Amino acid sequence: MSPFFAEFFGTAMIIVFGGGVVSNVLLNKTKGNNSGWIVITFGWAVGVFTGVLIAAPHSGAHLNPAVTLALVIAHKFSLSLMPVYVCAQLLGAMFGAALVWLAYKKHFDATEDGNSKLAVFCTAPNIRSYWYNVITEIVGTYVLALAVLYMAEPEVGLGALNALPVALVVLGLGLSLGGPTGYAINPARDLGPRIMHFFLPIPNKRDSDWSYSWVPVLGPLLGASMAAVMFMIFN
User: Fold this and answer.
1) Which one in 181, 184, 185, 209 has a CA-CA gap of 20 to 30 Å to 140?
2) Range of the domain at 13
3) 162: pLDDT confidence band, cut at 50, 70 and 90?
4) Cα–Cα distance between 106 and 160 in angstroms, integer?
5) Angle between helices 3-26 and 187-199 (to 10 degrees)
6) Cα 137 from Cα 216, distance rounded (Å)
7) 61 close to 158: Cβ distance less than 8 angstroms
């Protein structure tokens, strides 16, 4: 498998599991309706585990533009390859979101609440305060990127054996820091599905909340950059 398709399918798996578990918890008439936050965080963690396991042997399993940026800054990855990886991650997230919509199509039809439908695709803060929301995303992605930098194979990314450790980091971040903003910690994870929410024929959907869309892009990129600089200073 080429690195492009490894990043594409690995990121898609994150969204299939993550968007799928949010659908199961929030949409009407599902078997997991109202099963709660812990179920959601475990679903996302298993998605990361699966995505890393698939992609690691072929691409290093970045699966996140912020992680790719951190690896570039830390001189563990080539800047010239970054556009290909980021494009694959964004397209993979869009593909994964489309699969979730297909799997839960009848439950989207049965749900009237537009906010619940939007939450399947992208994050939103419970208290909207843009710069504090950015700070939350910075802190969460800083922790994620720092963990990945210490796990990463030289000049590639995550090895397959790090699928479980990085998934546990994501699980912990969801449980510990996910409350304020829904822990995007990944620009592609948020932006790709948000674009699909905009285009998909979802009945009675609300707007795609573009006024917030820059937060889960800027915050993770800043957090990952800070982690990479710290990594460079102390290593």
Assistant:
1) 209
2) 3-234
3) confident
4) 36
5) 70
6) 7
7) yes
Three-class SS of residue 153?
Answer: strand
- Structure tokens that stand for 109 in this block: 């039809």
b/e per residue, 108-137, with b = 16+ CB within 10 A? beebeeeebbbbbbbbbbeeeeeeebbbbb
| Tokens encoding 186 | 């990944």
DSSP secondary structure of 61-76: ---SHHHHHHHHHTTS
Amino acid at 209: D
* Cα separation, 208 vs 199, whole angstroms: 10
What confidence tens digit (pLDDT) does each residue in 171-213 have? 999 999 999 999 999 999 999 999 999 999 999 999 999 999 9
Across the chain, mean pLDDT equals 96
pLDDT tens digit string along 24-72? Answer: 999 999 999 999 999 999 999 999 999 999 999 999 999 999 999 999 9
Q: Cα separation of 78 and 108, whole Å?
A: 41
The total domain count for the chain is: 1
Provide the CATH number for the domain around residue 110: 1.20.1080.10
